[in-house]
Write a structure and sequence with these properties.
This protein has 294 residues and is mainly beta. The protein has one domain. 5% of the residues lie in helices and 35% in strands.
Length: 294
Amino acid sequence: MKSVLTIFAAGLFLSACGSEETVFSGPPTGGNGRAVRGICDAASLILLHEGRLSCASGYPGNPYKPDERFFGEQKPCRVTKTRTSDGVTEVVDFDASTPWADEFATYNEDGNLISWNAVLNFGRDQFFYFDYEDGLLVSAYTTVDGVEKRYGYENDGGRRVREYSLSTSAEYFYVYDGDKLIAEGPPVAGKAPERYEESFLTATGAGGELPLVPLNQATNEDSFHHATAPHMTYYYDGDRLSAAGRAGAPGLQFGKFTYGYEGELLKTVTTTGMTDQADFYFQPQTWTYDYQCE
């Protein structure tokens, strides 16, 4: 789970690729008829509120399987990650022969996540439970040390637009332009996050540094952080995702993700403006996807 659930502080074997090419489907849209397969599909706010973890990521993949929130029927079988600074590479083979599922999770007959044990991530025996109506996630609760906390979900036209705590003022928003998700994250200055102009993400200077996140503090004092910007902003070329920005904690910088295609298939994801942390995952790099593997 490490590559999927990333700390928000100070901040994929041969696949059974389908024969029909499917357009890269873009970032998660909080519903839209797709099964809630993993904890990152289900509990953005809960993870932030309970464990200071964020699922928001411009990388469309988890450690061993292509992420179903991002890909259609045609899934990659391998990704090669090349670090910008020194050309060091890391190759990961994906297994797309079975649906992506979280460890220590249970699912209903529709394939939706109904419970998850957070012990590996939080170091304690904490359970999350999820309830659905007409296939849409409508409520959740957690239990730890005999204490129960409840959360709600607001849907509009089959899409999730808000997650909220029933015991605090904590919230998490999904913002759309037509049918496209353009921003997600906790409130900024007491309002749902807005998408900045893409020029805001343009790298400046030899080091490729990006502008600092504007210091607009959220009024959500019960959340784990005072967020200063959306965790993610999304940009499109027609119907395809072309770029994304990921914001960090107060005073940190945006990272930019640029998506390249071959025909209808996503081929590369290139990051700029990321941090210089020792962890390979957080450094500027290019991910190159293969769809035919031997």
